[in-house]
TrEMBL record:
The name this protein goes by in its record: Putative ABC transport system ATP-binding protein
Domain of life of the organism encoding this protein: Bacteria
Record bears the keyword Nucleotide-binding: yes
PANTHER family: ABC TRANSPORTER ABCH.1, IMPORT ATP-BINDING PROTEIN
GO molecular function list: ATP binding; ATP hydrolysis activity; transmembrane transporter activity
Cellular-component GO terms for this entry: membrane protein complex; plasma membrane
Length: 249
């Protein structure tokens, strides 16, 4: 810390600088990200769009600390991820980031409740508190009447709502979703998007990958990737929402 310096802007939840990711070597080398820079402030709801192969999942996996960049830096909640040791990284991943995947990624033969409790088990939260927080998270996604169901006893939409509850239960600074409605029918897509809308209204910070305009229409801001580069970054009026503020932020 530099003494006497006061930061005027609040610390962004996400600060990404010149992120590069290369896969493979020599002739097989693929540059999946070619210098991506991006700030996301608390409470923002960002849709990251782009064609298949444009680098969306690569970016998401790095932001979620599931993969490491070839070069560049990024800060989550002020923590410089590249400088963390394994233990600090595990804590950051567990507590500060919630992940929702296209394919739900629930653990089979475990109840919805047990699935949602799992991040708290890893986080060392005592059992009674774990239970209470998992039940509250399931209530938030409208699944109080399904807490003892296992994934194969739930519809796709319900499974994804369990996954959202699991992502939320640690009260993360950032919710990351990679094509969260990609495997869902229209009605379930609507349910999940409504939940994300409500979370956004309550101040959550959301970054959602999608290639569908209907999904991106729910976000406050749309970032477009082409071949691993940001080519567009704009604010928009959310669905049924107030008009956008200026693009300055
Ligand atoms: P998107 O999610 O936008 O479809 P990805 O991030 O999955 O794009 O992929 C971006 C580029 O990186 C693609 O050209 C893809 O083939 C390549 N790629 C992704 N993952 C790997 C990997 N593990 N090994 C090699 N190339 C990869
Ligand atoms: Mg992808």
């Amino acid at each position: 810390m530099t003494a006497g310096l006061r930061v005027v802007e609040p610390t962004p939840v996400l600060r990404v600088r010149d992120l590069v990711k290369e896969y493979g070597e020599g002739d097989a080398r693929v540059r999946a990200l070619r210098g991506v820079s991006l700030d996301v402030q608390q409470g923002d709801y960002v849709a990251i769009m782009g064609a298949s192969g444009s680098g969306k999942s690569t970016l998401m996996n790095i932001l979620g600390c599931l993969d490491v960049p070839t070069s560049g830096t990024y800060l989550i909640d002020g923590a410089d991820v590249g400088r963390l040791d394994e233990r600090q990284l595990a804590i950051l991943r567990n507590r500060r980031v919630g992940f929702v995947f296209q394919s739900f990624n629930l653990i089979p033969r475990m109840s919805a409740l047990a699935n949602v409790e799992l991040p708290l088990v890893y986080g060392g939260v005592p059992q009674a508190e774990r239970r209470a927080r998992a039940l509250a998270a399931l209530e938030q996604v409208g699944l109080s009447d399904r807490v003892h169901h296992e994934p194969n006893q739930l519809s796709g939409g319900q499974q994804q709502r369990v996954a959202v509850a699991r992502a939320l239960v640690t009260a993360p600074a950032l919710l990351l979703a990679d094509e969260p409605t990609g495997n869902l029918d229209t009605a379930s897509t609507h349910d999940v998007l409504q939940i994300l809308d409500r979370l956004s209204e309550s101040g959550r910070t959301i970054v959602c990958i999608t290639h569908e305009d209907d999904v991106a229409a729910h976000a406050k801001r749309v970032v477009r990737l082409v071949d691993g580069e940001i080519v567009e970054d704009r604010r928009q009026a959310p669905v049924d929402g107030p008009p956008p503020r200026t693009a300055a932020g």
